[in-house]
């Protein structure tokens, strides 16, 4: 089938992620940047996230203490950035869907770096995961935000729930709900592991996740950097106090991937570089190195 839409909508960039690129044919992971932030409601700047993550990745050694792997072991190809249409989320999502379909047809794993969280809807539509695991301070389950807008960073999990079912989304690190969202989840069996519970009941939490994903053949992982505490990741669009530590996030990812049958896609979103001197970009690059090493 080839890469018809990847060639049409994606342009190479420098530096590439990690600096160790094996080319499309040999790659296990294909990285796509989506520099988009047209529905951001608090702190704009996530369109600069992909560039900042790539620059940080080249500066990090990348060695994983947990897996004893180096970046050059990971079989990465960085295809570049999607040609987004600022102000038009639907067209941007459509382009990303076509690119993800190209990557899927070649049996490779798409790794998307954003960009705002609204972009997650596109890969979910194409990859159709049975379970979505999302690290996020927020639930993003509003039906409309701002009022009258149903497709935005604050409604993305509501729209995704219409595709895969609300109970097939696992929320980790979530601690900020609107009243509308609270009413939606109150009588549903939605698995939400807030930072305090996860840190004090880690083994029990991992067991609960394992039971929930045991029969899932396809799992998608979405990481919103605001799942982390602002003291560890201040450069995000919507910081929320009392978040996860970086070590807790990485340990949780590691445990999940140990028993996940198949990870069919990953995204990392909501880095907003204007709000710190570069620390959060290095955190983001470290997370990507680790999650690819685990897989």
Molecular structure report:
This protein is of the alpha/beta class and 295 residues long. A nine-stranded mixed sheet has the order 1-3-2-4-9-8-5-6-7, sandwiched between helices. Helix 9 (246-259) runs parallel beside helix 10. The mean pLDDT is 96. The radius of gyration is 17 Å and the shape is globular. 49% of the residues are buried. It has ten helices and nine strands. Helices cover 36% and strands 16% of the residues.
Poorly predicted sequence stretches spanning 5 or more consecutive residues: none
Q: Average pLDDT value?
A: 96
Coarse structural class: alpha/beta
Along the chain, the helix and strand elements come as HEEHEHEHEHEHEHHEHEH
Radius of gyration: 17 Å
Relative helix content: 25-40%
Taken from the alpha-carbon principal axes, the silhouette is globular
The amount of beta strand, in percent, is: 15-25%
Q: Tell me the total number of β-strands.
A: 9
Number of helices: 10
Cα(first) to Cα(last) distance is 26 Å
Side-by-side strand order of the widest sheet? 1-3-2-4-9-8-5-6-7
Largest sheet: 9 strands, mixed
